[in-house]
Write a structure and sequence with these properties.
305 residues, alpha+beta, 10% strand
Length: 305
C-alpha cells in the first residue's frame, strides 16, 4: 500500500511511503520516515490516524488502523528530546545544591555579617539533612531503581520542570535558613512528629518504587496490577493506585510540620495537585486495561480521591 504522510497542523503533504505492508508497525514507520528525514529521529516523531486523534502506539500496525489501500497518517514533530533519566538528574540535583547555598549562607544571600555563619537552631540542621536525603534518594532511585516506559520527553519541558523544583527549593531554603527563622511553635514535640512522618513516608515511597520495579522486567513495557508485597509499606496498594504519590505528599507535609514554614506547605499542596492529576490518569488507565482491577481502590488518597 501507499501511505500518505500529512502535517497534523497544516494538513500539507510531507511525503509518500510506497510499498508499505499492512502489517507494518508505527515504530517501523518512524524508522522509514527517519531515512527520508534524518533530523527526525523516532523519539521526536508522533503519528495520528486523524489530525486531532490520539497518538498512535509504536506497536500498532497499519491493518489495525483501517487506513484502506491509500492510507493517510498525520505527523507531528515533538521537538528535540532528552532522556528521562537526564530529566530526573537535572530536576533533583538542582534542589540538592540550591538548598545548601542557603544553608551555608553564602555571601549576598543574607546580610553580609551572616555570611558562612551557622544557625543555632537544631531543626535548621535537621531540615538540611532531610532535604538533602530526599533528593539524594531521588537521584539514586533514578540510577538504580526506576525503569522508564517512555525513553524521552521534549527538552523544552526540562526547563519548566527544573524551574519548578529549583525555585521552590530556593524559596523554602531562604526562609528555613534565614537568620531570623523561628522554630516550631510546639517545640520538640512538633519537630519530632514532623520528622517521624517524613522518615516513614520516605521509606514508604522507596518501598513503592521498588515494588513497581519488580512488576516490570528489564527491557519490557509489560504492565501488571500492582499489589502489596511482604513489605508492610506496600499495604497502601490495597487502598490507592499510586501510593508513591501518597507517600511523597506525606513526606512534604511532615517536612512542613517540622520546619513550620509557609513555602514548604505551599510546595506540598501544589505538588499534591499535580500528583493527583497524574494519579487519576493512571487510575483510569488501570481500570481500562485490567477488567479485574480492584474497584475499591482510589487514586491517591484512601476513600477520598
Amino acid at each position: 500500500m501507499e501511505l500518505q504522510i500529512l502535517d497534523s497542523k497544516t494538513k500539507q503533504k510531507l511525503c509518500t511511503l510506497e510499498r508499505i505492508s499492512s502489517n507494518t508497525t508505527i515504530d517501523s514507520i518512524k524508522e522509514i520516515y527517519q531515512r527520508k528525514f534524518p533530523n527526525y529521529y523516532p523519539e521526536r516523531q508522533s503519528f495520528k490516524s486523524s489530525p486531532k486523534g490520539k497518538l498512535l502506539k509504536g506497536s500498532e500496525t497499519l491493518s489495525e488502523l483501517n487506513l484502506g489501500a491509500e492510507g493517510v497518517l498525520y505527523f507531528k514533530d515533538l521537538g528535540p528530546q532528552v532522556g528521562w533519566s537526564t530529566v530526573f538528574y537535572c530536576e533533583y540535583t538542582g534542589p540538592l545544591f540550591v538548598y545548601l547555598l542557603f544553608y551555608f549562607r553564602l555571601p549576598y544571600i543574607y546580610d553580609s555579617k551572616f555570611a558562612f555563619t551557622s544557625s543555632p537552631d537544631d531543626v535548621v540542621h535537621l531540615a538540611a539533612i532531610c532535604h538533602s536525603f530526599h533528593y539524594m534518594k531521588r537521584v539514586l532511585e533514578t540510577k538504580f531503581v526506576h525503569r522508564f516506559s517512555h525513553g524521552t520527553m521534549p527538552i523544552k519541558n526540562l526547563f519548566r520542570n527544573c524551574s519548578y523544583y529549583w525555585s521552590f527549593a530556593a524559596w523554602m531554603a531562604y526562609y528555613i535558613n534565614h537568620p531570623l527563622y523561628t522554630p516550631a511553635t510546639f517545640g520538640t514535640m512538633q519537630i519530632c512528629s514532623g520528622l517521624a512522618v517524613f522518615v516513614l513516608c520516605e521509606l514508604g515511597n522507596l518501598s513503592i518504587h521498588l515494588a513497581f520495579r519488580s512488576l516490570r522486567p528489564s527491557g519490557s513495557t509489560q504492565r501488571k496490577i500492582p499489589t502489596a508485597t511482604g513489605n508492610p509499606f506496600t499495604l497502601l496498594f490495597n487502598f490507592v493506585s499510586c501510593p508513591n504519590y501518597t507517600y511523597e505528599f506525606g513526606s512534604w507535609v511532615g517536612f512542613a510540620v517540622m520546619t513550620q514554614t509557609l513555602p514548604v506547605f505551599i510546595f506540598a499542596f501544589v505538588g499534591f495537585g499535580q500528583m493527583a492529576i497524574w494519579a487519576l490518569a493512571k487510575h483510569r488507565n488501570y481500570k481500562k486495561e485490567f477488567s479485574n482491577y480492584p474497584r475499591s481502590r482510589k487514586a491517591i488518597l484512601p476513600i477520598v480521591l
